[in-house]
Each structure stands twice: as structure tokens, then as C-alpha cells.
TrEMBL record:
Name this polypeptide is given: Response regulator
Organism: Pseudoduganella albidiflava
Xref: CDD domains: REC_HupR-like
SUPFAM superfamilies: CheY-like (SSF52172)
Residues bearing PTM 4-aspartylphosphate: D60
């Protein structure tokens, strides 16, 4: 395929009549790369093979073995960016109306075609496909930005929660908590906020953070009243994570790593579990004793070992963590 042909938009035309395929291809050759298929099944294979480059799908309605509606639905379900057009020489309004109502087609063109009108229809369909792609790309970029904002806000909330119950600034275990989340492979939160008003989102996040804080404080108070020492931490982690924690010679391995990321990655409507709250409470309890956990990733999970606190977190350090997520 020449460079000029590669720069043209692609149209897939499906029809069981070889003459119609040749006629369509010749009519559109100057303005598009035209793929053709002689049946619904072949059309599906062509879609699967060239979906990224195809802008428009045009399908005849009456074909042996299956109606064009089936192919249009297939494209609608798997490749919604493709503009779908139905064409037929028969008066089959029942099938056409059904396809329109189900959102399977953009336009209906009756045969025989007027070549000038057909070229105009294809030009408009290609332009619509381009606009759809641009719109989808903008939505993806907006989603990524919103996801980073959501994680950043939750990291800020996490620091506030920890600072509110820690004995001093040095006891805020942000480094250990975020290191573990990073090693666990944090996934940005699901975009349930796309369906929410901004005020509802902020309200939901605030109540979620407050509920998490209450859980953490309750677990921390229980640990503080237990009279333990930092050396007991791996026994505590075994209790918190149950079979998801394995002891090692110098510390332990948290096997069920999804339990380390809940607050940062679960949707705003999802409550944080008591297990996750206990994990943060253990880190805070250690901080009150001048200790923390050094965290590293591994093939078997997230490895932890006991270590003294180096320094209190700073705004610059917190900003650096936010950038990493």
C-alpha cells in the first residue's frame, strides 16, 4: 500500500454481490481506502483485522446466511467508534427501523446509489468518525487527569488522617504506606465520579475519608492498649492479614497485595475494609515507638522489615509521592 493510500480514511463495504463491491470501490477509491467483504462472517473478520483503521462500515441488508443488521450490531458492540451505514435495494423498513432504534446505524441509504450523493454521504461519515475519535481521546485524557487528581486528593487526606492521630510529625507513616501501595501496583480509582456532580463527589469522598479515619483510630487505640513492643509487629501483621502474610528471617511478606491499596484505589462509593484500616493503624503504632517498615517489591508479594524512622515527611516529599502515582 502506498503512503498516499495509507493517509486516506478506510471504509469497509460488505455485500454479497461482486458487482456492487466493485462499483462501490471504484466510486470511493479517490477519497478512501476501501475494504470489501462478501458476507457477514467475512465482514466480521475484516472488522477484527482492520478495526483501528476503519472509519466507516457500510453493509448491505439482504445477504445469504445473515442480515446486515447482525454485522452492524457486531460493530456497534465491539467498535463503537466506527460509523455504521445500512444500504439495501429492498423495502425492509421493519429491519431498518429496528437498527435505527437500537443505535446500530448512523444512516440508511437505498440502492441504487446516486454517486455524487454517495460520495458526500461517505465524506460526512468519515468526518463524524474523526470527531468521535477526537472526542474519545479527549475523554481518555480527562479521565487520566481526574484519576491523578483523585489519587492526589486521597494522599492528602491520608496525611491529614495520620497527622491527626500520630504522636508527632515523625510518626506519620506516609512513606511506608505509599511505598507499599506502589509496590503492590496501585490501579487508579474507577471513575464512578463521572456519574456524580462535583459537590456529591466531594461529599462522598469526605464521608469516606472520615469513616476510614474512625476505623483507623479504633484499631490504633486497641493496639496502644495492648502493651506490645515494635518487635511484635510481624505477629500483628499475621493477625491483620491472616493467610495473606508470611514470616521470613528478617521480616515478612504481604501476599495479598490488593489489601495495601484500598483507600487509594477503590471507588468513592466503596467503604474501606477494617483490614486496610488495621494495616495503617499498625504503621501508626510503630511510628509512636520511633519505628517504621521498610518496604520492597518482590515476585511473591510486598516484603517488609522493621527499621527506625529516618525523618518526618515534608511537603516536598509528599509532592514527590503524588507525582509517582
Amino acid at each position: 500500500m502506498s503512503d498516499a493510500a495509507k493517509s486516506l480514511p478506510a471504509i469497509l463495504y460488505v455485500d454479497d454481490e461482486p458487482t456492487a463491491l466493485k462499483y462501490f470501490q471504484r466510486a470511493l477509491a479517490a477519497q478512501a481506502t476501501v475494504y470489501t467483504a462478501g458476507s457477514v462472517e467475512e465482514g466480521k473478520r475484516m472488522l477484527d483485522q482492520h478495526a483501528e483503521s476503519i472509519a466507516v462500515l457500510v453493509s448491505d441488508q439482504r445477504m445469504p446466511g445473515a442480515y446486515g443488521n447482525e454485522l452492524l450490531f457486531y460493530a456497534w458492540d465491539r467498535y463503537p467508534h466506527i460509523v455504521r451505514i445500512l444500504t439495501t435495494a429492498y423495502s425492509e423498513m421493519a429491519h431498518t427501523v429496528e437498527a435505527v432504534n437500537q443505535g446500530q446505524i448512523h444512516r440508511y441509504i437505498q440502492k441504487p446509489w446516486d454517486i455524487a450523493a454517495l460520495r458526500m454521504e461517505m465524506r460526512q461519515a468519515v468526518e463524524l468518525a474523526r470527531l468521535r475519535r477526537e472526542h474519545a481521546q479527549l475523554l481518555r485524557e480527562k479521565l487520566l487527569i481526574r484519576q491523578k487528581q483523585a489519587v492526589a486528593n486521597r494522599i492528602g487526606t491520608l496525611y491529614a488522617l495520620c497527622a491527626g492521630v500520630a504522636a508527632d510529625a515523625a510518626a506519620v507513616p506516609v512513606d511506608a504506606y505509599l511505598s507499599a501501595a506502589l509496590c503492590a501496583g496501585l490501579t487508579p480509582p474507577e471513575p464512578d465520579w463521572l456519574m456524580m456532580d462535583y459537590s456529591d463527589l466531594i461529599s462522598s469522598e469526605a464521608f469516606r475519608g472520615a469513616a476510614f479515619g474512625c476505623l483507623v483510630r479504633a484499631r490504633l487505640d486497641a493496639l496502644a492498649g495492648g502493651g506490645g513492643v515494635p518487635g511484635d509487629v510481624f505477629g500483628l501483621l499475621a493477625e491483620v492479614f491472616d493467610d495473606g502474610f508470611q514470616r521470613t528471617a528478617d521480616g515478612g511478606v504481604i501476599v495479598h497485595t490488593a489489601r495495601l491499596t484500598e483507600f487509594l484505589e477503590t471507588p468513592t462509593a466503596s467503604a474501606v475494609s477494617s483490614t486496610h484500616a488495621a494495616w495503617l493503624a499498625v504503621l501508626l503504632w510503630l511510628g509512636r515507638h520511633g519505628q517504621t517498615l521498610q518496604v520492597s517489591g518482590g515476585p511473591d508479594g510486598v516484603r517488609v522489615r522493621l527499621a527506625p524512622i529516618d525523618a518526618a515527611p515534608t511537603p516536598q516529599a509528599l509532592a514527590g509521592w503524588i507525582e509517582q502515582f
